[in-house]
Write a structure and sequence with these properties.
Blueprint: H1 117-121, H2 127-131, H3 133-141, H4 150-165, E1 191-197, H5 198-201, E2 212-223, E3 236-237, H6 254-261, E4 269-274, H7 275-282, E5 292-298, E6 301-305, H8 337-354, E7 356-363, E8 381-389, E9 398-406, E10 408-411, E11 417-427, H9 441-444, H10 449-459, H11 461-474, E12 478-488, E13 491-503, H12 505-511, H13 516-531, E14 536-542, E15 548-554, H14 560-573
Parallel strand pairs: 2-10, 4-6, 4-9, 11-12
Antiparallel strand pairs: 1-15, 2-7, 2-8, 3-13, 5-6, 5-14, 8-9, 10-11, 12-13, 14-15
Length: about 575
C-alpha cells in the first residue's frame, strides 16, 4: 500500500511570498509584467476558440459607459504580454521555408460558439437563406463566377448578417426546436430501398408534351363575377354550403380502375394517380411538413394512392414561414398547425362552392363518377381525366393517367367557356405566433395587394406551388384566389371574404420561380424507380425534419386494418 507524504511548506513570518527560491527555478530569468495585465484562469476550456489572449475593450473595460469590463471578463491576456518582453519566441532562419498546409482564408475557417440566427441563415435578417434553402445549396454546387463560388458569397453574406442583426436575435438559439412527428409510423418490418435528398431532386429536368384528354365527368357552375367587386369595405360573409367534396383516392376511382383493368398493349407501362398526388411530387423540394404516398406495383401497372386520413387531403398554413405555427399541446389552441389545417380546408371547400352560380350549370360529357343521380347534394365539380406521355425513347412507352379537377367555368368575351380552378388563402391572426410577419389584410389588401401576395408566396410557397401545378395539370386557363379572414381573430368558426384575384397559372409559376420541367423530372424519376420494383406495396415517405424522401417496401397488409376500422366507424355513425 502506497504511503502519502505531505510536501514541505515554507512559511514566511516576516511577509508574503516564498522564504527561499527553490533550486529548480533558480536559473530562470525574471519576466517583467505590467500592472494593466489581467489575471484570469490558468486554463478556460469553455471560452470560444480564438478569444483567449484578446482584450476587446482594453485594460479599462468598456470605455463608452465607464464600466469595469464585466461583460468581457472571460477575454484573458497572457500574464506579462503587455510589457516590453525580451522573452518572446523568435523564428529562426531554419524555419523560413516552413508553410502551413491549411491555406484557407479566415472567412472560410469554422468557428465555435453560438452564432446568431441571422448569421446561420445568411443575408440580412436571414430571409433570403430561409426562403430559398435548397437554392442556396445548389449555388455552392455551381461554377465559380468572378473568383467566388455561390457558397462563399452566401457565407460572407451570412457573416455580414450576423454582425448587423445578431444582437437583436441573440436569443434565437434558445427557441424551441421544431421536431415534428412523421406522417406515418415506420414499422419494424419495413425495408428502406432508397433515400433521395432534395438537393438531388432540384437538379432534375424533364419536358412533357401536351396531354391527351380521356374523359370529362361531372358538372361545373359558372363563376359569379360579383365576387370580383368584393373589397375590405364591401366584404361578404363566408357561408357554409351543404356540398361536400370527397377526395377519392386513385385505386377507388371507378374511371381509373376501369383503365387499369384494361388489357395493356405489349410494351406499354401504365401509371395512375390524382392531380393532388402528382402536385405533391412536383413540389416536393418546397415541402416542410411530412407526407407519404402508397405505391402499388402489379405487372406493368403502378398506382399511387393516399391513405385514409392522409395529410394530402388537408391544406397547410404557413408551412414555409421562418417561424411556422407551433403545436403547444393545448387542444383548445385554434392557431396550432392541425387546427389551422382543418380551418383552411373548411374555408377552401366553402369558398369554392359559394363563388359558383348553381343556377348556371354546365353539364360535362359524363355524370359524376362518385355520386348517383338520386343523391340530394351533388357537388359542382368537373373531373378531367388526362393522359401524359413520360417516354424518353421510342422503345419506351410509359403512360401516366391523372384525374384532375375543375372548379368553375368563366364566359369569355367571345362567349366561349374557359375552365378555372378556385382556391382560397386565409388569414388567422397577424399578431399570433406563426403569422410569418403577415400584414393585416383589412388595412393593406386594397392598397398593397402585391405586398400581401408576396408575403403569402414566402409563407405558403409549397401550398401555392401545388395549386399552380394542379391548375396546369387540369388545363385550366385561370386560377382564382380568394382572400378569406376571420371575422374575429379569436374565433375560428366565422369568416369573411375580403377580396379575390385572378391569375394565369404559367405567369404565377414564373413569379414563384417554379420550374414545371423540374417537377416533371421528379415525377419521371419516381415513376421509373417504381416501374423497376418487383410486384408489391411500397410507401414513399417525406422525412418530418429533414429535406429527404425515403422509399420503403412494406407488407401487402399494411394500412388495411386502419381502413377497415375507418369504414366500420363511418357505418356506425350513419
Amino acid at each position: 500500500m502506497s504511503v502519502f507524504k505531505l510536501p514541505t511548506v515554507s512559511d514566511s513570518q516576516s511577509g508574503w511570498g516564498p522564504v527561499d527560491l527553490s533550486s529548480q527555478f533558480r536559473d530562470i530569468p525574471y519576466a517583467p509584467y505590467s500592472k494593466a495585465d489581467k489575471l484570469g484562469r490558468i486554463a478556460d476550456w469553455s471560452a470560444p476558440e480564438g478569444t483567449q489572449g484578446k482584450d476587446n475593450r482594453g485594460a479599462g473595460g468598456d470605455q463608452r459607459g465607464g464600466r469595469t469590463g464585466f461583460r468581457f471578463r472571460d477575454n484573458y491576456v497572457p500574464f506579462g504580454s503587455n510589457a516590453a518582453n525580451a522573452f518572446n519566441y523568435q523564428h529562426t532562419e531554419d524555419e523560413a521555408s516552413f508553410s502551413v498546409v491549411d491555406n484557407r482564408s479566415a472567412a472560410q475557417k469554422k468557428t465555435t460558439g453560438f452564432k446568431s440566427a441571422s448569421s446561420q441563415r445568411g443575408g440580412r435578417g436571414g430571409f433570403r437563406q430561409q426562403g430559398g434553402q435548397q437554392r442556396g445549396q445548389f449555388q455552392r454546387l455551381g461554377a465559380n463566377r468572378g473568383g467566388f463560388s455561390g457558397g462563399a458569397r452566401q457565407q460572407q453574406g451570412g457573416q455580414r448578417g450576423g454582425r448587423r442583426g445578431g444582437y437583436n436575435n441573440w436569443r434565437d438559439f434558445d427557441r424551441n426546436q421544431r421536431v415534428r412527428d412523421a406522417s406515418v409510423k415506420v414499422g419494424s418490418d419495413w425495408t428502406m430501398l432508397e433515400e433521395i435528398e432534395f438537393s438531388r431532386l432540384n437538379k432534375l429536368q424533364f419536358e412533357v408534351d401536351s396531354p391527351e384528354d380521356i374523359a370529362l365527368h361531372g358538372a361545373v357552375g359558372t363563376y359569379d363575377k360579383a365576387y370580383d367587386r368584393v373589397t375590405t369595405k364591401l366584404e361578404k360573409v363566408l357561408q357554409q354550403v351543404d356540398r361536400e367534396r370527397d377526395n377519392v383516392t386513385t385505386s377507388e376511382d371507378p374511371v381509373l380502375s376501369s383503365l387499369a383493368a384494361e388489357a395493356v398493349p405489349e410494351g406499354e407501362q401504365r401509371v395512375f394517380a390524382t392531380d393532388s398526388i402528382i402536385g405533391v411530387l412536383m413540389t416536393a423540394p418546397r415541402s416542410v411538413y411530412p407526407w407519404d404516398i402508397v405505391i402499388t406495383k402489379t405487372g406493368d401497372k403502378v398506382i399511387f394512392d393516399t391513405r385514409e386520413g392522409s395529410q394530402l387531403d388537408y391544406v397547410s398554413v404557413n408551412e414555409n414561414s421562418t417561424d411556422p405555427p407551433m403545436d403547444t399541446g393545448d387542444k383548445d389552441n385554434i392557431n396550432s398547425p392541425s387546427a389551422l389545417s382543418l380551418e383552411a380546408t373548411y374555408i377552401n371547400t366553402n369558398f369554392a362552392a359559394q363563388v359558383v352560380n348553381s343556377e348556371q350549370v354546365v353539364e360535362l360529357e359524363n355524370a359524376n363518377p362518385f355520386y348517383n343521380a338520386d343523391d340530394e347534394s351533388v357537388p359542382l365539380v368537373g373531373y378531367r381525366y388526362r393522359k401524359f406521355d413520360l417516354s424518353t425513347t421510342e422503345e419506351e412507352d410509359i403512360s401516366l393517367f391523372i384525374r384532375t379537377e375543375i372548379d368553375a367555368v368563366v364566359k369569355s368575351a367571345q362567349g366561349e367557356d374557359s375552365y378555372i380552378t378556385v382556391k382560397a388563402l386565409n388569414e388567422f391572426d397577424s399578431r399570433a405566433q406563426g403569422a410569418g410577419g403577415a400584414m393585416e389584410w383589412r388595412q393593406k389588401l386594397d392598397s398593397q395587394r402585391g405586398a400581401v401576395v408576396a408575403t403569402e408566396m414566402k409563407n405558403n410557397s409549397c401550398k401555392l406551388a401545388r395549386w399552380v401545378v394542379q391548375s396546369m395539370l387540369a388545363g385550366a386557363d385561370h386560377l382564382k384566389l380568394g382572400f378569406v379572414s376571420r371575422s374575429n381573430p379569436k374565433d375560428a368558426a366565422r369568416h369573411t371574404i375580403l377580396g379575390t384575384q385572378i391569375c394565369r397559372p404559367k405567369e404565377f409559376a414564373s413569379q414563384m420561380s417554379l420550374q414545371i420541367t423540374n417537377g416533371w423530372g421528379i415525377v419521371k424519376t419516381v415513376v421509373d424507380l417504381a416501374l423497376k420494383l418487383p410486384e408489391g406495396k411500397y410507401v414513399l415517405v417525406k422525412d418530418p425534419n429533414k429535406p429527404v424522401i425515403r422509399l420503403y417496401a412494406v407488407p401487402k397488409s399494411t394500412f388495411e386494418a386502419v381502413e377497415e376500422d375507418a369504414e366500420e366507424a363511418e357505418a356506425q355513425t350513419a
